[in-house]
Amino acid sequence: MLRLKGADTTPGHEGDEWEGARVKEIIELIGEALDFVGVLVIAAGTLIAGVTFALRYARTRRATGFYPAFRQGVGRAILLGLELLVAADIIRTVAVSPTFQSVGVLAVIVAVRTFLSFSLQVELEGRLPWQPRPAAGPPPSGG
């Protein structure tokens, strides 16, 4: 069981402070790993979308039909990457250093990233999340 530093001075509980520090270190590493994976997802998704676009363009020599698919691929990569980055921020802020200042900073970061995610989602799908999906037809071109 973890205890706050100096919370228990009973003989035999000297290792509790070390355990708490070790758990915080592990949580920090998990947060950093999620940050890395989030950035990797954005970079890899953008690269895959770019290569796919380039290959399609090389075959047909026209970009008009493939550009919306490229934008959607990049947008999806950014959305997934942002979700992972938000998760990393939450883990580090709430689990490691839950002060009012750090929670306030987290709230601003999450608000900005949520707005970006929402905006990208609307742009990709061409509708607000609470609106019903169109019955049939091609997806919106997006640009």
Automatic annotation (TrEMBL):
It comes from Nonomuraea cavernae. It comes from the Bacteria. This is DUF1622 domain-containing protein. The keyword Transmembrane applies. Keywords: Membrane, Transmembrane, Transmembrane helix. The chain crosses the membrane at residues 36-57. Pfam families: DUF1622. The lineage of its organism: Bacteria, Bacillati, Actinomycetota, Actinomycetes, Streptosporangiales.
